[in-house]
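As a warm-up, study this chain.
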Amino acid sequence: MTSYGDDATVRDILTARGDTWAVVGLSTNTARAAHGVARVLQRYGKRIVPVHPKAETVLGERGYSSLAEIPFAVDVVDVFVNSHLAGEVADQAVAAGAKAVWFQLGVVDEAAYERTTAAGVAMVMDRCPAIEIPLLG
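Now compare it with the structure written out below.
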């Protein structure tokens, strides 16, 4: 399997790209993976920003219905949507000035990866920050 984002890129995104993470697909549904990952990111000092059509407040943070609605800079966009929708989110992240895009486990869009990295934005696909961040030590 092709790796999209080597270990150095993973480390860079988790330690040097900034601490404000928009989590696209995060809702109040605690059974969803996005909820658990957002909790881990918070535990490691990241500010999470829920992005979901319902714009719900999640884990104490106000939600927004789209990346474009967030009135402050976002460092990393963590994407929990189906692969066929993820490319559009990556494009929105680049347009919003994000420093990095992270597609969760199972979320793969090679064309989006090419577009995003060509725009100078760091990207990881098909990995999970909640798995990776404890390994940084």
